[in-house]
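Bumping my old thread because nobody answered last time. Still need a sequence for this structure:
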């Protein structure tokens, strides 16, 4: 009976070890994906803010342009950058799905 419990304990230990490794691997990949997404979003936000600032400085004497640019909210760069990053993430996800389908079919 002791040998049975020993064997069962060994199997449970092996199962929980594999399960913990699987969860840890998924956790690392999730953190990696989130980090890449934050980096892409930050890049897009910086780019859009740079474009808005360069437009604002390139038309300093145009009163109509200045009036129009004042209608844009102060967080427009962040919003546009986040939307652009979300679209890029969606395109990447769809591309990954297409590659997985090709891999399954071949």
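Sorry it took so long. Here it is:
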């Amino acid at each position: 009976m002791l040998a049975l419990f020993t064997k069962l304990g060994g199997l449970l230990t092996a199962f929980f070890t594999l399960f913990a490794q699987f969860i840890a691997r998924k956790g690392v990949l999730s953190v990696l994906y989130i980090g890449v997404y934050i980096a892409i979003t930050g890049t897009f936000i910086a780019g859009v803010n740079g474009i808005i600032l360069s437009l604002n400085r390139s038309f300093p004497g145009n009163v109509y342009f200045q009036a129009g640019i004042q209608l844009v909210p102060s967080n427009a760069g962040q919003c546009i950058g986040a939307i652009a990053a979300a679209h890029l993430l969606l395109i990447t996800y769809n591309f990954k799905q297409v590659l997985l389908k090709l891999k399954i079919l071949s």
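Helices lie at 2-58, 63-70, 76-105. Let me know if any region looks off to you.
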